[in-house]
Design goal:
The complex is a heterodimer of chains A (114) and B (113). Chain A is mostly beta strands and 114 residues long. Chain A contains no helices and 11 strands. The termini of chain A are far apart. The chains are: A mainly beta (114), B mainly beta (113).
Chain lengths: 114, 113
């Protein structure tokens, strides 16, 4: 079982460039999330979705946009990359809302902004 | 903003030793989860606790949720090198729509053979 798949795994961008990170899940989960992980700060929620066609802001949404056109896919976009967005990005999904539900994570995208 | 603190931040021990790591907050959580993350991978759920005072065991790992549901601990008995990793706690409160869910910064555990 693939679970949650993130592409690409690594990327280096120059300041001001744009890119899209793709997350795909094959578990028919309703909820999907994008986090960033920085040293000493744990995982911080960027945006999330409670179902196809829905998105909502998390703790650190500035500089990012998301879309969930299909239930299995959740895209994270950086319109104009900044060095502060250098991080490891994780996508996760869960059957229903978090708390009592396990979140299933991908293996991350390591993004460097020069 | 709800915050979760974890201690210690780093822990290096010898194989066979026992250890306890802590997850603390001033906020009340309806549930708390523990995840383990290995290098180059995403976190993997170990356990979810939902009732104050609840104790759950997973082989050599014992998880406890505080009576007031503000804190939790993870105790590992006879640690093994395979226990090495980043241990994250995550707390949920309020409704299911994401406004009140937070991860702690993690405890990085190294078990030396």
């Amino acid at each position: 079982n693939a679970g949650v798949t993130q592409t690409p795994k690594f990327r280096v961008l120059k300041t001001g460039q744009s890119m899209t990170l793709l997350c795909a899940q094959d578990m028919n989960h309703e909820y999907m999330y994008w986090y960033r992980q920085d040293p000493g700060m744990g995982l911080r929620l960027i945006h999330y979705s409670v179902g196809e066609g829905t998105t909502a802001k998390g703790e650190v949404p500035d500089g990012y946009n998301v879309s969930r056109l299909k239930k299995q896919n959740f895209l994270l976009g950086l319109e104009s990359a900044a060095p502060s967005q250098t991080s490891v990005y994780f996508c996760a999904s869960s059957r229903r809302g978090w708390g009592n539900q396990p979140q299933h994570f991908g293996d991350g995208t390591r993004l460097s902004i020069l | 903003t709800q915050l979760l603190e974890q201690s210690p931040q780093f822990l290096s021990i010898q194989e066979g030793e026992n250890l306890t790591v802590y997850c603390n907050s001033s906020s009340v959580f309806s549930s708390l989860q523990w995840y383990r993350q290995e290098p180059g991978e995403g976190p993997v759920l170990l356990v979810t606790v939902v009732t104050g005072g609840e104790v759950k065991k997973l082989k050599r790992l014992t998880f406890q949720f505080g009576d007031a549901r503000k804190d939790s601990s993870l105790h590992i008995t006879a640690a093994q090198p395979g226990d090495t990793g980043l241990y994250l706690c995550a707390g949920a409160s309020g409704d299911n729509y994401g406004q009140n869910f937070v991860f702690g910064p993690g405890t990085r555990l190294s078990v030396l053979p």
